[in-house]
Amino acid sequence: MIGELDRFVRALETGTRLHAGQVRKGTRVPYVSHLLGTCAIALEFGANEDQAIAALLHDVIEDVEPVEAGRAAVRGFGPEVLRIVEACTDADTHPKPPWRERKIAYMDRLAHEDAAALLVSASDKLHNARAIVADLRQHGPALWERFNPDSDQPWYYRGLVTAFRANPNHPVALVDELESTVAEMERLA
């Protein structure tokens, strides 16, 4: 539930400003659409104000340079928002470590996260998985050319489902939805 609307609007403005000029991978869709989609999913599955704000800012530390400026912007929304965003960050160095190494480390970390971090992370992953499925329906396997050549998106998303389920703090209905979407991704892949 959003209590302080001004704080939420300020977070939306911050996320929009920090991701300005960025687009969804291989598209012309403004990146803010992902922030809004992730936040909407988190709210639909019970996010509180800090969790909703973290959903809007979940990629700042990972994608904004310099990293410390991104981290400082997130820190401005309080320690809980920063903690959740840190938990959703798979790398805060540039260049990033190799793709598979990063993804394995991220999935391993999910085993130790609390319900708030899992809610925002799973909301992010569900929004991404839905976009992949929609693009697979439209473009077919050519979609995979958008991604890092070392990446294996179906493997990663199946691994995420397993990692979320292994943590008793996971949001069950949200992970059920993610699993259903991943199964469709695998079917279309």
Topology of this protein?
Elements: H1 5-18, H2 32-44, H3 49-57, H4 60-63, H5 67-75, H6 79-88, H7 99-110, H8 115-139, H9 153-166, H10 172-188
Structure description:
The chain has 189 residues and is mostly helical. The chain has 10 helices and no strands. It has helices spanning 5-18, 32-44, 49-57, 60-63, 67-75, 79-88, 99-110, 115-139, 153-166, 172-188. Helix 2 packs antiparallel against helix 3 (49-57) and helix 2 (32-44) crosses helix 8. The longest helix has 25 residues, at 115-139. The chain starts with a helix and ends with a helix.
Between the first and last Cα atoms, what is the distance in angstroms? 37 Å
Name of the CATH class: Mainly Alpha
Shape: globular
CATH architectural category: Orthogonal Bundle
Counted by DSSP, the helix tally is: 10
CATH topology term: Hypothetical protein af1432
In short:
The protein is mostly helical and 189 residues long.
Keywords:
189 residues, Hypothetical protein af1432, globular, 0% strand, mainly alpha, 10 helices
